[in-house]
Design a protein that fits this description.
The chain has one helix and no strands. By secondary structure, it is mostly helical. It has one domain. The radius of gyration is 18 Å and the shape is rod-shaped.
């Protein structure tokens, strides 16, 4: 049972890291976009 739980946790961890990597690109783009607009909003 412990082995299965560790395996499931590892899979979830891998998937979240993959999602985070994918979201980081979108996030950095969103941050650049937001800061760009904040500069000109002032």
């Amino acid at each position: 049972i412990i082995g299965t739980e560790a395996f499931e946790h590892g899979v979830k961890d891998f998937l979240t890291k993959k999602e985070v990597a994918k979201n980081c690109k979108t996030l950095s783009r969103a941050i650049k976009y937001a800061t760009y607009h904040l500069k000109f909003a002032k």
